[in-house]
Design goal:
Blueprint (H helix, E strand, L loop, with lengths): L2 H9 L1 H18 L1 H4 L37 H36 L4 E3 H21 L9 H9 L1 H9 L2 E2 L9 H19 L6 H27 L2 E2 L3 E3 H13 L3 H10 L6 H9 L3 H15 L3 H8 L4 H37 L11 H9 L7 H28 L1 H4 L1
Antiparallel strand pairs: 1-4, 2-3
Helix pairs in contact: 1-17, 2-4, 2-17, 4-10, 4-12, 4-13, 4-15, 4-16, 5-6, 5-7, 5-8, 6-9, 7-9, 8-9, 10-13, 13-15, 14-15, 15-16, 15-17, 16-17
């Protein structure tokens, strides 16, 4: 931010209150456990037990009382805040990075029509990496259908080229196409992995094996066809912006929390990595739509038009001119997204879809305290207040940043 934006931010009392809340919660969550005198996982049966075996009430030893198995609630609250904030920060980074990339590409290349098989190459590259990630985290994602889905997308380019849009006997100068080798390079490792894996363990492994095998064979047939006949596909051309925004519309048709819960429920064994992916890969659509709108404005500015007229490459224009002008909006969206991620993680933990015990998060503490509300209401009130203050702080900070970065849009 420039000096005027900083001055506007400092004059905004709500933004300063939000900043103070965020700093206090971060210090409490990350520094508090280091100086605490209690272990968050060790119960205190001597001084933390209340009458008749109920959780201990707040006292000089345990300032916020103890939980259902007599562990210090204040320390548990700090550890829970650290876990909730870690999930929120990492998931927000994934969502904002992906949404910013899609939004910039969609907005800048609006009106650019590319061949459908070229889109297949891009999809194959990105989701080939997703398939590798699914294989790497195969134990944690054993019950998740990501493997078959990623394998299908990783070979989409080969499947599209192999006859779904038809052949056209058009002469080409080069018989061997590098993209065909890319399709085979993406498909063959997946085929080999599925072949050596125990296919009887999960049904989706069989589906993934069949899909990858069919795509590999079809890609090989297309490669052979072009080599012998020097023909290419009659692939239609589509608008990059239309494809990206229709995908965003489909994802936005599902409520965010409902989609997150459905994906989390499909995972048999959860870990921090799976929670990061589930939240991050479902929350990028709103960022993509906002960044696209900002990019449509920036690409019509005089210095961007002049750069294109002078022959500057698209990657250089995006990095030097477009990205610096949309990064402020991305930061504001990221700040507001952290609050949404905290609520989403708390909802997952409250429903038992997040990390299992003894991991402490604010949502898990809410779930644990629900059964003791009548005898120990502090078990429910303390994590609820922590979630409220965190969400309020990040929302106030995000609103203040929005007013400071772009006062015209704020008004």
């Amino acid at each position: 931010m420039d000096r005027r934006a900083i001055a506007r931010f400092r004059r905004n009392r709500g933004a300063l209150v939000g900043l103070a809340l965020v700093v206090a919660i971060v210090l409490f969550s990350f520094v508090g456990p280091l100086i605490a005198g209690h272990d968050p996982y060790v119960p205190d049966f001597d001084r933390g037990r209340g009458p008749f075996g109920v959780p201990g009430a707040p006292s000089r030893v345990h300032w916020l009382g103890t939980d259902n198995i007599f562990r210090d609630l204040l320390v548990r609250l700090a550890h829970g805040g650290r876990l909730s904030l870690e999930v929120a920060f990492v998931a927000t980074t994934i969502a904002v990075t992906l949404g910013t990339a899609v939004g910039i590409a969609s907005g800048y290349f609006k009106g650019t029509r590319v061949r459908l098989d070229a889109i297949g190459d891009v999809v194959a590259l990105h989701f080939g990496a997703a398939a590798g990630l699914a294989i790497t985290l195969g134990r944690d994602l054993a019950g998740f259908r990501l493997l078959g889905f990623a394998a299908w997308l990783a070979t989409l380019g080969a499947m599209v080229r192999a006859g779904s849009v038809g052949f056209s006997l058009v002469r080409r100068r080069r018989a061997v196409i590098a993209t065909d080798l890319l399709d085979l390079a993406l498909s063959l490792p997946l085929v080999g992995w599925v072949a050596v894996h125990r296919l009887g363990a999960l049904r989706e492994h069989r589906v993934a094996a069949a899909v990858v095998a069919v795509a590999t064979v079809s890609g090989a047939l297309r490669w052979s066809f072009e080599k012998r006949r020097r023909a290419t596909l009659a692939a239609p051309r589509v608008d990059v912006d239309d494809v990206a925004m229709r995908a965003v519309d489909v994802l936005l048709a599902f409520p965010f929390l409902l989609l997150v819960m459905a994906l989390a429920a499909a995972i048999e064994r959860t870990s921090e990595a799976t929670i990061f992916l589930v939240l991050g890969l479902t929350a990028w659509t709103g960022t993509a739509r906002v960044i696209r709108g900002k990019t449509l404005q920036v690409r019509e500015l005089e210095f961007v038009v002049a750069s294109r007229a002078l022959g500057q490459s698209a990657p250089a224009i995006l990095l030097r001119h477009v990205l610096p002008n949309v990064i402020g909006v991305a930061i504001v969206l990221a700040t507001n997204s952290v609050a949404s991620m905290i609520v989403a993680e708390a909802a997952l933990s409250f429903l038992g879809l997040s990390l299992p015990p003894p991991a402490a998060s604010w949502g898990r503490m809410l779930d644990d305290g629900r059964a003791y509300y009548s005898v120990a209401p502090w078990l429910l009130v303390c994590p609820a207040v922590a979630i409220l203050l965190a969400v309020l702080g990040f929302n106030l900070l995000g609103e203040g940043l929005r007013d400071a970065v772009d006062p015209k849009d704020a008004s």
